[in-house]
Amino acid sequence: MTKDIPVGAGAGLVAALLFGVLLKATTLSILLYLLAPLPILIVGLGWSHRAALAAVVSGGLALALFISPYLGLAFAAYLAIPAWWLAYLALLGRPNADGTIEWYPTGRLLAWVAGTAALAFIAIAVIASPDYDTFRAQLTTMSRRIVQVQVQRGRIPAPPQSGTASEAPGSAEKPAGTDADGSVSQPPGDAQTGEPQKSDDLASEVADALATVAPAIAAQGLTILFTFYLWAAARIVQISGRLLRPWPDLPSTMMPRSTLLVFAAALTLAMVPGYPGALGIALIGAFSAAFALQGLAAFHDRSRGRPGRFALLAGLYVLLFLTQGVAMLALILFGIADTALDRRRPKARGDA
What we know:
- It comes from Methylorubrum extorquens.
- InterPro entries: DUF2232.
- Keywords: Membrane, Transmembrane, Transmembrane helix.
- This is DUF2232 domain-containing protein.
- By secondary structure, the protein is mainly alpha-helical.
- It has helices at about 5-20, 25-35, 35-45, 50-65, 70-90, 105-130, 130-150, 195-240, 260-270, 275-300, 310-320, 330-340, and strands at about 95, 100-105.
- A two-stranded antiparallel ribbon has the order 1-2.
- A hairpin with a 5-residue loop joins β1 (about 95) and β2 (about 100-105).
- α6 (about 105-130) packs antiparallel against α10 (about 275-300).
- The radius of gyration is 25 Å and the shape is globular.
- The two termini are about 35 Å apart.
């Protein structure tokens, strides 16, 4: 096993390099940054979880020594440790009485992907802003900028005009808050309609709502990314002939019913103030993505052997693309129902 350590250390340096190029802030650097977990997952699935752990240590130390301790800690908490943990779970197995190995179920692995994504987001948030109020203020500022851009592009309608076109520009009386010397003691805005103030109020409300759900959106995206990373790394290792477990039947993936309890607990935790509430919101987003992925797997599973299966699957993916993810809500509900009812067809599984 010790021979795996140098391989893992080298993979960690590659992952650290891919993570560190994000400081360049270019399109290429962002694309390379997105590939950072892959080297760790590849050595974890193709060699051992010890190699992946060596990658975590070497990559984190390299960034901490040559760039900054903060960056090394962020790399370890946000990407490296989650990649090691998922590779470790994927290779868990126990021997059966007949000598075969029962590998860790893909449904439980998907649930852990969601939980890991939520914890990774909260970890990087705490590292960046130990004080929750500061973190919330940063989210609100970012959300307000996004809202302003969307208003400028016309994707978010401006508030309706409450004044009339027949009103002359100078016909308005002095605002109630105007002093005797003509100075304005109230926030600037139209005296009769108050439209700028309404615009500010609308932007603030939308920005606050977006900042509230930001942990769910981030954890949702991270869940999908971690799932893709795990699948891509496993495919690469399988092609090389080093994958230690047989390729699983992905359409049969089904999370245990206990994930419904976790989801319900996350809904309750989301009402708690501070970072615990943010964790609850992140878990809601992460498990929503996991349920959507299970719904997609269930659709693949239930369509097996049916005429026109390719057209059905192609239509589903086109619908997801055209609705820009709105159809994911149906997949989430389908995944929740699939988990709760457990009514998959008890037939021999074919190829996906």
